[in-house]
Design goal:
The structure is a single chain. This protein has one domain: Lipocalin, CATH 2.40.128.20. It is an alpha+beta fold. The N terminus is likely disordered. A hairpin with a 2-residue loop joins strand 3 and strand 4. The protein has an 8-stranded antiparallel β-barrel with strand order 1-2-3-4-5-6-7-8. Keywords: Cell cycle, Cell division, Lipoprotein, Palmitate, Signal.
């Protein structure tokens, strides 16, 4: 019995204290939701089933009167533009640059702004270790800016070799 308790305590300690992901998802320290609103172009992303095969991907964020955000993700697949409409709201407890996004009923996923241009001209966003996006207010980024974002993603533990660059 004593061995079982020791094994269980060890397992619980490992589970409770282990990092859920091997990446650093600390968000930006200052974040103005109003400035974040508008159209963003996807420069690059990690592969995901919901975006697989898509090109010319954009995300448009619109602040609603109730404080939530309308999310309109769109992209081209097979020559046809498709849209996924969702909603976002501030994470609880409130943390700058941390939102929760839902595209289906009440199932929310984390949305974390890890890096942001001084004038909100680009953003590095994650949702756990499996999802990473580089967003820009313009369809293309200067190479020096892209290099700076890639270096930050690598510093945080993301494998930037897995990025798929948008066309």
């Amino acid at each position: 019995m004593k061995k079982i308790i020791i094994i269980l305590l060890g397992a619980m300690t490992t589970i409770c204290c282990a990092k859920a992901d091997g990446v650093n998802e600390a968000t930006v320290t200052s974040f103005d939701l109003n400035r974040y609103m508008g159209l963003w172009y996807e420069i690059a992303r990690f592969d995901s089933s919901f975006e697989r095969g898509m090109t010319n991907v954009t995300a448009e964020y619109t602040l609603r009167e109730n404080g939530t955000v309308r999310v309109d993700n769109s992209g081209e697949r097979g020559g046809k533009r498709t849209h996924a409409i969702g909603k976002a709201k501030a994470a609880k407890p409130a943390v700058p640059g941390s939102l929760r996004v839902s595209f289906f009923l009440w199932f929310y996923a984390p949305y974390r702004v890890l890096m942001l241009g001084e004038n909100y001209e680009y953003a590095l966003v994650s949702s756990g270790e499996k999802y990473l996006w580089i967003l820009s207010r313009t369809p293309k980024l200067e190479q020096s800016t892209l290099n700076k974002i890639l270096a930050e993603a690598q510093r945080r533990g993301f494998d930037t070799n897995k990025l798929i660059f948008n066309q």
